[in-house]
Specification:
The protein is an alpha+beta fold. It is built from 4 helices and 4 strands; from the N terminus they run E-E-E-H-H-H-E-H. The chain has a 4-stranded mixed β-sheet. The longest helix has 12 residues.
Length: 120
């Protein structure tokens, strides 16, 4: 028996807004930009209806939330330390938002680039 074919969902767009670790200037040694929050909602393209927005906090593995980052995003180290790992955040997107079946949209190119980089 073959696996079921999952058809894309052309009627809904997954809208994301990512926050990542950041610094005023270059990152400290051995730290990189990492996603610390995934804001997500679903837009119904036929009606314009928007699902309730959700924030998924993501615990960074290779960097820390700087004071500059907290000032910029309002996310504290203590908050993101309570988040899920990046793999679990991706599993939530797949399980609860059908992220593997929907096109994604975000503001600007940063979100796309950091999502790709962190997935690699």
């Amino acid at each position: 028996m073959s696996a079921p074919i999952i058809l894309p969902d052309p009627d809904h767009l997954l809208v994301i807004d990512l926050e990542a670790t950041c610094w005023l200037g270059p990152p400290p040694p051995d730290e990189i930009n990492e996603i610390i929050e995934i804001g997500v909602c679903v837009l119904a393209l036929d009606t314009g209806a928007i699902s309730p927005a959700r924030s998924i906090l993501v615990r960074p593995q290779r960097s820390k939330v700087s004071a500059f980052c907290t000032e910029l995003t309002s996310l504290t180290p203590e908050q993101v330390d309570q988040g899920v790992g990046f793999a679990e955040a991706c599993a939530i997107l797949m399980r609860e938002y059908a992220s593997d079946q929907r096109a994604w949209g975000s503001w600007g190119d940063f979100d796309r680039r950091i999502m790709h980089a962190q997935c690699e």
